[in-house]
Amino acid sequence: MTHARVQRQLSALLDNELTADEAQELRAHLETCARCREELERLQGLKRLLGAVQDRTPPAQLWDDLRRRVDAPAPGAVAGLLETIRAAFRRPALATAAAAVVLMLVAFPLVRGRIDRLRAAEIGPDLFVREHALAAATDPFADRAYLGLLVSDVNLVLIGERRERGEELR
Amino acid sequence: MTARALVIAVCAAVLVAATPVRGQDQPVLLASADAATVIRAVLTAPTLVDYEGTKILTALRGQRAETVTILESYKRSGKLRLEFLSPESASGRLIVDDGASSWHYEPSRHIVMRGPSFVTAQPAVDPAVILSRYDAMVLGNEQVIGRQTVVLSLQPRGGGLVKRLWVDQATGVVLRTEERDPSGELLFSSLFSRISYSLNLPSALFRFHLPAGARIFSFYVSGDPITDPQELSRQAKFALRAPIVLAGLRFRSGTVARHGALTAVTAQYTDGVGVVSVFQTPASRMAMPEGATVALRGMQGRWLDLGYFRILMWQSGGVSFAVIGTLPLHTLITIAEELNAAAR
């Protein structure tokens, strides 16, 4: 008998839903297995707790309300979505988390795009070198390998990733 | 096969093997050519010759020289692949220009930057225009990496960098260059330490393959070229100065770059060979970095010597200006004064 099978049968044992043979087999296993006994005690405690909950008489108008809602036409997709959102906002923690996710999804690309555009838009010597190097490629005596190096170096600067040359210069 | 036929076949094979390489075109032998012929060979080589080689560049950047080693592959017409071997800070960098776009992969940052092609923008240049702008002279013949070259000197009549080119006599490819400012200081040099021709380089070598997970930046900063100065002024939406002729150079084209509220206009002027770029933008929007102060007529400018390129910046009439090129300072000052005079 495996633990997985025993644990599936423990709840049935408590509810007297096992056959006599199954119950006997299970009890034999419980005598030798401390882990399954603990699980049985946990389920017994849970059952006691649920048993202590008092029954409440439903309000008199509950059935009338239910019938009215069942008879009402089904809400559309938009109404359903709105109801889901309303339900979410009735739970502040969930609403806050959802708002944060939406804010990140919307704001991050905007902020990131803005940073890229601003860097690219810095109108100064780096931009001049880039644009001029591209224009100078029409000179038949220009060295395109060198112009390519200049343009790629400046591109790195414009996105904020300047190449460190330092000690390699001489 | 008879003995006579065999001798003829062997002779033919020897002749074919001895023929200098010139891509798929007839060979040119420039050993005793004049400057115009050498220039013509240089201009047509990119349409005739494929090559792959290792190139060493040394350029003045700021006040110091930087040496860069590149594996350069070129395929007709206008496809270029550059793999940077050194220095360490650029090692592994890859630039692929497929003729439509250029792709730059920076492995240390795992980023890709895409921009316009800088190889195909090659208007047909008439050798006569070059000869009218430069004093061109053949200085003699020299060997470079075991290949016979003809040495060509080009001295711009309007001032600027003096070029010396070592042109492969068989292919027209420039194997070595030197560019010096008028004072004789070496600003740029390049040298192929190894080169192979007619390799039938595969097209796949010039197609960029995006590395998995790399971030891409598109760098088409400017709009399309505008060839009419009036149309450029109209699109700039501020008082643009774009004369047709500036210090003897002719307006070629301009572009408008917009980033939200920021607008910058670039106008290019050319002598038919080299290019000077003029940037204009509403005054407060242009960075004015530190640099030497230069007196312009009635105002001050800033002069930034980047080594190969030089920039002169100033403000006038609510507009910031920058002129950039390889020209000497006095020529840039002439351009600035003509632009200022154009507003009066």
Question: What does this protein structure show overall?
Answer:
The complex is a heterodimer of chains A (170) and B (344). Chain A is mainly alpha-helical and 170 residues long. Chain A is 73% helix and 0% strand. Chain A has helices at 3-14, 20-32, 34-52, 62-71, 77-89, 92-121, 125-136, 144-158. In chain A, helix 1 runs parallel beside helix 3 and helix 7 (125-136) runs antiparallel to helix 8. The longest helix of chain A is centred in the middle third of the chain and has 30 residues, at 92-121. Chain A is elongated and about 100 Å long. The model of chain A is unreliable at 111-121 (pLDDT under 50). With 344 residues, chain B is of the alpha+beta class. Chain B is built from 5 helices and 20 strands. In chain B, a hairpin with a 2-residue loop joins strand 1 (51-61) and strand 2 (64-75). Chain B starts with a helix and ends with a helix.
List keywords for this structure.
heterodimer, A: 170 residues, mainly alpha, 8 helices, elongated, B: 344 residues, alpha+beta, 12-stranded mixed sheet, 8-stranded antiparallel sheet, 17% helix, 45% strand, globular
Question: What separation lies between the terminal Cα atoms of chain A?
Answer: 79 Å
Low-pLDDT runs of chain B: 11-27
Structural class of chain B: alpha+beta
Shape, per Cα inertia axes of chain A: elongated
Low-confidence stretches of chain A: 111-121
Q: How large a portion of the residues of chain B is in β-strands, by DSSP E? A: 35-45%
> What's the number of helices of chain B?
5
How many whole angstroms does the radius of gyration of chain A measure?
A: 36 Å
The pLDDT mean of chain A sits at: 74
Q: What is the percent of helical residues of chain A?
A: over 70%
How big a fraction of the residues of chain A is strand? under 5%
Distance between the termini of chain B: 87 Å
Strand order of the largest sheet of chain B: 7-8-9-10-11-1-2-3-4-5-6-12
- The number of E-state strands of chain B comes to 20
User: Which chains share the greatest interface?
Assistant: A-B, 46 and 78 residues
The gross shape of chain B turns out to be globular
Mean pLDDT across every amino acid position of chain B: 85
- What does the main sheet of chain A amount to? none
Structural class of chain A: mainly alpha
